[in-house]
Q: What sequence folds into this?
C-alpha cells in the first residue's frame, strides 16, 4: 500500500532544535493570546460557526505554518525534502481519519502530545498513548504483515 | 490586529520547528513508528524538546494573571475520560500511521505541492466537518476540549 520503506537519517540535534522551536511557539501563543497551540483545534476554529473563536488568528497561524518551508528555502537555499505517498485512495482515507479523529478526540500531536502533556492533563496523556499505540500498530501491519 | 500578527509569527516559528526537526517528511515519521524496521527515533527528540520548553514556559506564562493580548487563557476544562478521548485518538493514530502525516506537518507541507499532501489535506478538512456534524456541537466548543 505505502511506498517502500525509505531509510531516513537519525537527526537528534536538528530534531531537538525543531522541538525547542515548536515549544517556543506554543509558549508565545499562550503568553500573548492565551491559546493552546493545537493544530487540529486551530483548524476547527477556521470553520463556522465561529462563536468568538478568533478565526482570524487561526487563519494567521496557518499562514505562518505554510510560510515556513518557503522561508527555510529562502534562507538556506535548500528545498525541504520529503517523501509523500502518491496513493490517492490511501491518502484520502488517512486524511479523513486524521481530520475526524483529531477533532472528535479534541486534539492531535500538538494539542494533546505537546501542550496537553506539558499541562500534565490526564486526558491528553491517555490520548497520546492511544494515538502512538495505534500509529505503531498501523505501521507494523502495513509494513510487516501486509507488505512483509 | 496584534493577536493575528502574534499568531502569524507563532505559526511561522512552529512551522520552522517542524521543517528543521524533519517532521514534514512523512517517511521520517513512519520510520519512528517502525521500531522493528527502518527505525528513526528523531520524532522523540522533537516531542521531548517541545514538551520541556512548553512545560517550563507555560509555568512562566501562567504567572501572568491574563494573557498579554487577550482577556483570558482559553484552557480545556474537561477532565473525565469519555469514549471520545479513546475513539478519536485511535482513528487519528491509524490515519497517522497510514500517511505519516498529522495536521501540523500536513498543512505546513501544502506549499511543497505534493499530490498526496493536497489529497490528504482536502480529506482532512472533510473529516473535521464530519466530526463536527456527528458531535452536533459548535466548533469552538468541541475544539475547546483540548486543542484550543
A:
Amino acid at each position: 500500500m505505502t511506498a517502500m520503506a525509505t531509510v531516513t537519517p537519525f537527526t537528534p540535534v536538528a530534531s531537538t532544535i525543531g522541538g525547542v522551536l515548536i515549544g517556543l511557539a506554543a509558549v508565545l501563543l499562550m503568553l500573548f493570546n492565551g491559546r493552546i497551540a493545537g493544530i487540529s483545534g486551530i483548524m476547527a476554529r477556521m470553520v463556522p460557526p465561529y462563536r468568538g473563536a478568533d478565526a482570524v488568528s487561526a487563519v494567521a497561524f496557518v499562514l505562518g505554518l505554510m510560510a515556513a518551508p518557503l522561508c527555510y528555502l529562502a534562507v538556506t537555499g535548500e528545498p525541504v525534502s520529503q517523501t509523500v505517498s502518491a496513493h490517492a485512495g490511501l491518502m484520502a482515507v488517512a486524511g479523513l481519519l486524521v481530520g475526524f479523529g483529531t477533532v472528535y478526540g479534541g486534539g492531535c500531536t500538538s494539542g494533546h502530545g505537546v501542550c496537553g502533556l506539558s499541562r500534565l492533563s490526564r486526558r491528553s496523556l491517555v490520548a497520546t498513548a492511544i494515538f502512538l499505540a495505534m500509529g505503531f500498530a498501523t505501521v507494523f501491519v502495513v509494513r510487516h504483515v501486509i507488505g512483509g | 490586529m496584534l493577536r493575528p500578527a502574534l499568531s502569524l509569527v507563532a505559526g511561522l516559528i512552529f512551522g520552522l520547528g517542524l521543517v528543521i526537526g524533519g517532521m514534514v517528511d512523512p517517511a521520517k515519521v513512519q520510520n519512528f513508528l517502525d521500531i522493528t524496521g527502518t527505525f528513526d527515533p528523531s520524532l522523540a527528540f522533537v516531542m521531548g524538546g517541545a514538551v520541556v520548553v512548553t512545560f517550563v514556559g507555560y509555568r512562566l506564562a501562567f504567572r501572568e494573571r491574563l494573557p498579554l493580548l487577550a482577556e483570558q487563557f482559553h484552557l480545556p476544562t474537561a477532565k473525565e475520560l469519555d469514549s471520545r478521548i479513546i475513539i478519536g485518538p485511535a482513528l487519528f493514530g491509524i490515519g497517522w500511521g497510514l500517511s505519516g502525516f498529522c495536521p501540523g506537518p500536513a498543512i505546513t507541507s501544502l506549499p511543497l505541492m505534493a499530490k498526496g499532501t493536497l489529497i490528504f489535506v482536502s480529506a482532512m478538512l472533510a473529516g473535521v466537518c464530519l466530526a463536527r456534524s456527528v458531535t452536533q456541537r459548535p466548533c469552538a466548543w468541541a475544539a475547546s476540549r483540548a486543542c484550543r
Q: What stands out?
A: Chain A touches chain B through 128 residues (CB under 8 Å). Residues 116 and 123 of chain A are 8 Å apart (CA to CA). The mean pLDDT of chain A is 93.
